[in-house]
Amino acid sequence: QVQLVESGGGLVQAGGSLRLSCAASGRTFSSYAMGWFRQVSGLEREFVAAISWRGSRNYASSKMGRFTISRDDAKNTVYMQRNSLNPEDTAVYYCAAGPNIRGYGYDYWGQGTQVTVSS
Questions:
Q1: What are phi and psi of 92, to 5 degrees?
Q2: Residue 98's closest CA among 21, 20, 31?
Q3: Taking the CB of residue 10, how many other CB atoms lie within 10 A of it?
Q4: Nearest CA-CA partner of 91 in 29, 31, 36, 39
Q5: What is the pLDDT tens value at each position of the chain, 119 positions in all?
Q6: Do 53 and 114 touch, CB atoms closer than 8 A?
Q7: Which residues have a Cβ under 8 Å from the Cβ of 57 and sit 6 or more positions away?
Q8: Which residues, other chains included, contact 115 with Cβ-Cβ below 8 Å and sequence gap of 6+?
Q9: Helix/strand/coil (H, E, C) string of the chain?
Q10: What is the rounded CA–CA span in Å between residue 40 and residue 78?
Q11: Which residues of 41-50 are buried (b: 16+ CB within 10 A; e: fewer)?
Q12: What is the Cα–Cα distance from 89 to 76, expressed in whole angstroms?
């Protein structure tokens, strides 16, 4: 089992920056790919980005490339940074641990952290 706890969400003004953290505990963190997903109210959860244990990154689209994912295996933590936020980034953001960086098949999920971007 892997337990994941996200933090860093909240209310941010448009144009501001955001850094989300996801702390992992349990089984060996460094053996998993770590991903970030988000869910806008009323829509399905969507893949944002993932990073492998080797540091390879995958972003879901050019739009998602405005996020930067990173990990610190010494701290068992994965991060997601985004500058120049806009209201369309308002969502619940989830981190997850899984077998690949393609955005599917993830086994473990955090509870999510709300990000609200005001205009």
A1: -90, 125
A2: 31
A3: 10
A4: 39
A5: 899 999 999 999 999 999 999 999 887 777 899 999 999 999 999 999 999 989 999 999 877 778 999 999 899 999 999 989 999 999 999 999 999 999 999 999 999 999 999 99
A6: no
A7: 49, 50, 51, 69, 101
A8: 9, 10, 12, 18, 20, 38, 85, 89, 90, 91, 92, 93
A9: CEEEEEECCEEEECCCCEEEEEEEEECCHHHCEEEEEEECCCCCCEEEEEECCCCCEEECCCCHHHEEEEEECCCCEEEEEECCCCHHHCEEEEEEEECCCCCCCCCEECCCEEEEEEC
A10: 21
A11: eeeebebbbb
A12: 26
Structure tokens at 67: 């996020």
Copy the structure tokens of residue 118: 């005001």
Tokens of 22: 């996801």
Question: Half-sphere exposure of residue 20, counting CA atoms within 13 Å on the CB side?
Answer: 33
Single-letter amino acid code for the residue at 105: G
